[in-house]
Design goal:
The protein is mainly α and about 300 residues long. It has 11 helices and 3 strands; from the N terminus they run ααββαααααααααβ. The chain is globular, with a radius of gyration of 23 Å.
Length: about 300
């Protein structure tokens, strides 16, 4: 028998949206970096090991550049669809997860007895996966609008400025499919993230770390490690959200026209850009690596 869905805590949801709004300028800058837009040239610098690289400005300086060009409000371009998408996704995930859950008291008793813990873990992870996928699908239209609004920074277009104008432009240009551009890699990344994190955390807590206090830090550490591996899916998803549009950001030479997300993945991998935007403070320009200066000893020739 299914349990009744618990009421959603709108206070917690509202608090989450406030945090999202506060840090939106950072997310704004990160998406532009993911799209490959670097308006400020890289400068030569030296790391702590004495090696020289060309460094792009960190993400805070990038956000400052957006403020300089478009003003304070310009840093919050795309905020409305982002908040609506996050709210829709959170509510959808909570509702679906609560609907899928069996009697929690019975599950807890079975887990305490230690019977089929891996089966219980897989069932809960499967439920979480279904709920997360439903949330991603429900929020994807807002995500696409947000990314395209931000991408307008590159060429200064106004096609997606408003929420309703963005909806109309996407429907007119791409039809219903346009609202779900980049959905597949985003879903794949989320599924891998959920299963990898839950299986690793469950195994570590059961066999390696016995104390409850130490177990509290395991999800944070595992989440950071796994998200580093799933990051390319997020990158490709955001690139595909604008690929094929008439935006300058999606046109050569800024972006190659991609027929599918797998083609986008292959091209970014070929260029060594699958981690583009993952580092926010030490952003090395890999296309301009500094050649080491060779020291010649007396009587030695380089030729």
């Amino acid at each position: 028998m299914r349990t009744m869905s618990a009421p959603i805590n709108f206070g917690t949801v509202a608090l989450g949206q406030c945090v999202t709004a506060i840090f939106h300028p950072v997310g704004h800058a990160k998406i532009l970096i993911q799209l490959g837009h670097e308006p400020v040239p890289a400068k030569l610098g030296t790391n702590i090991f004495g090696k020289q690289y060309y460094y792009y400005p960190n993400i805070l300086k990038y956000a400052g550049h957006i403020w300089t060009r478009d003003g304070f409000l310009g840093m919050y371009t795309g905020l409305l669809p982002r908040v609506l998408g996050a709210f829709t996704g959170t509510c959808t995930q909570n509702a679906v997860l609560e609907w899928l859950r069996q009697d929690e008291k019975k599950e807890e008793e079975e887990e305490e007895e230690g019977k089929d813990w891996i089966k219980t873990l897989c069932i809960k992870t499967g439920q979480e996966t279904v709920a997360k996928c439903a949330a991603v699908i429900a929020s994807q239209p807002f995500h696409v609008i947000m990314v395209r609004q931000i991408a307008q920074f590159v060429g200064g277009e106004k096609m997606y400025c408003g929420l309703f104008s963005g909806i109309g432009e996407i429907y007119h240009s791409d039809g219903i499919r346009g609202f779900f551009a980049g959905l597949t890699p985003r879903l794949i990344g989320e599924v891998i993230q959920i299963w990898a994190c839950n299986l690793i955390i469950g195994s570590v807590n059961r066999y390696i770390i016995p104390t409850k206090e130490a177990q509290n830090y395991v999800p944070l550490f595992v989440g950071l490690v796994v998200s580093n591996f799933t990051y390319p899916f997020t990158l490709v998803s955001n690139v595909m959200a604008v690929a094929g549009t008439e935006l300058v950001a999606a046109s050569p030479p800024n972006m190659k026209p991609y027929a599918s997300w797998t083609e986008c993945w292959s091209h970014l991998k070929e260029m060594g850009h699958l981690k583009r935007g993952n580092s926010q403070f030490f952003r090395v320009d890999r296309s301009r690596m500094v050649q080491p200066v060779l020291k010649r000893t007396p009587g030695q020739s380089f030729y």
